[in-house]
Amino acid sequence: MAVTVYIPAPFRRLTNNRSYVEGHGQTVAELLDDLKARYPALGDMLQGEGGDLPSHISIYVNNQEIHSLQGEATPLKDGDEVAVIPVIAGGQDLTSEQMLRYSRQIMIPDVGVAGQRKLLDARVLVVGAGGLGSPAAVYLAAAGVGTLGIVDSDELDLSNLQRQILHHTPDVGRPKVESAQETIARYNPDVRVIPYRERLDAANALEIVGQYDVVVGAVDNFDTRYLLNDASYLAGKPYVDGGVFLFEGQVTVFIPGQGCYRCLFPAPPPAEVVPKPSQVGLLGTLPGVIGVIEAFEALKLILGLGESLAGRLLIFDALAMEFRQVRTRRDPQCPLCGDAPTIRELGEYKALSSSPLAGRDEG
Ligand SMILES: [Zn+2]
Description:
The protein is about 30% helix and about 20% strand. By secondary structure, it is α/β, with parallel strands linked by helices. Helix 6 (about 135-145) crosses helix 11. The model is unreliable at about 350-363 (pLDDT under 50). The chain has helices at about 30-40, 40-45, 95-100, 105, 110-120, 135-145, 175-185, 205-210, 220-235, 260-265, 285-305; strands spanning about 1-5, 20-25, 55-60, 65, 80-85, 125, 145-150, 190-195, 215, 240-245, 250-255, 310-315, 320-325. The strands form 2 sheets. Strands 8-7-6-9-10-11-12-13 form an 8-stranded mixed beta sheet, with helices on both faces. Strands 2-1-5-3-4 form a 5-stranded mixed beta sheet. Zinc ion binds near residues 259, 263 and 331.
């Protein structure tokens, strides 16, 4: 029987830096013998006192720990996937199940177990459980972001399902935060969801935003977007902003002190030029792309990876299938984050509406 064996990062130097090796055997015991014969150094690691598998190493067959199967007598068939997962010493307190669940990202050198720990300890607020918030929350949850706050006051409408993948057909009529919480629990029970079935407003925004490390904006109206921008700045939190309209999407990141949404668009456009989000057509794949990019930026901020979109507005033209970007900067005249700010607390956000980009919609 030929099976694929996943080798975790700490053992990879024992397999010529390969993360997968082929192995043979009718049972797990035979497979271990085969690996010991071909990779003696790995074999030493897999052999404790008396020749048994050491207790700090777990073996999984097709994602099931062998003690829940038939132990080392577990039979193997062609194409099975076997994983060798060590408990990592040094206060790295991931369970063996977590080591396996997140193995594909733990094996990224800049992530590793320490990065996974950061994700599990991180708190991300997703404002809006709609077209943008759905893919963002799903991917953040799957990656193991330990605490997800989800803000949405709406109930699910049948017309939402075309893009809002946090929810399912039987959820129509239910509060979106409830179905979101259930969906996320099925994706990843490691994640604690804190639902807020309310609208963000000047009275609650700072208090809620203040409890999170990163804010992901996934909203369909300009008053909430400006409110979120102001609250994130005043609370000193990075704010990932995304929006979609027709076939175009935009994403950027605002780091307090390096510019904000008001630096980009000081004031919203008059309400009469803004179409209502529910009257603008949209393919669900557009908020899908933008929401996933928002999640990616949030993960990068938590992990300290790469270059964030801070200082850049990424524009996605889905019809041309092109990404372009424009530079953004902090405006010294900005009423919020400029040199002489006039906005020092959250005020009224009514009557705000769309931007020159016409009704950026969460979808
Ligand atoms: Zn600003």
